[in-house]
Amino acid sequence: MLKIMFVCHGNICRSPMAEFIFKDLVAKEGLSAEFEIASSATSTEELGNPVYPPAAAELARHGLKCAGKYSVQLKKSDYEKYDWLLMMDSHNIRNAKRIIGQDPQQKVRRLLEFAGRNEDVADPWYTDRFDIAYADISEGCRAFLDYLRSAFSF
């Protein structure tokens, strides 16, 4: 079983969007049993809060539900628990490494790297473009699943 953690600043917009997009992708491929998928924050300011309503609405527009998801913070122990820690932006990488320490196993990566894009998923909290965040995250998740398929023969 591969364990995937998506990470953003507050765990109320981008990382929960990635969590539910990726869960949907693997379910449609009949691979749910092969994965443990979660999301977390590098900050503490949104802990315990539900998915931000505009992010939940964007997921709903695509037929995805996120009820019951509440913000949690990345823990040092998550480094050992998860095979991949996929960050939404470079600030998340810096902040995650403050929590987990170094990354000797190269588990910490930006999501869009897998789509061949050396860029961040823009934070819709500031841009108010949840549609663009959804499209970027979907692209990254599909590319990541393709990468895993080729690497692990799913």
Task: Explain what you see.
- The chain is α/β, with parallel strands linked by helices and 154 residues long.
- The chain has a single domain (2-152), classed as Rossmann fold (3-Layer(aba) Sandwich).
- It is 43% helix and 14% strand.
- The protein has helices spanning 14-28, 53-61, 78-81, 90-100, 124-127, 130-152; strands at 2-8, 35-41, 84-87, 108-110.
- Strands 2-1-3-4 form a 4-stranded parallel sheet, with helices on both faces.
- 42% of the residues are buried.
What are the main properties of this structure?
single chain, 154 residues, alpha/beta, Rossmann fold, four-stranded parallel sheet, 6 helices
What topology emerges from the helices and strands here?
Layout: E1 2-8, H1 14-28, E2 35-41, H2 53-61, H3 78-81, E3 84-87, H4 90-100, E4 108-110, H5 124-127, H6 130-152
How many β-strand stretches?
4
Strand order of the largest sheet: 2-1-3-4
CATH third-level topology: Rossmann fold
* Oligomeric state of the chains present here: single chain
Percent helix: 40-55%
Low-confidence runs of at least 5 consecutive residues: none
Largest sheet: 4 strands, parallel
Distance between the termini: 11 Å
Which radius of gyration do the C-alpha atoms yield?
Answer: 14 Å
Full CATH superfamily name: Response regulator
Task: List the domain count as a whole number.
Answer: 1
The CATH architecture comes to 3-Layer(aba) Sandwich
- Average pLDDT level: 97
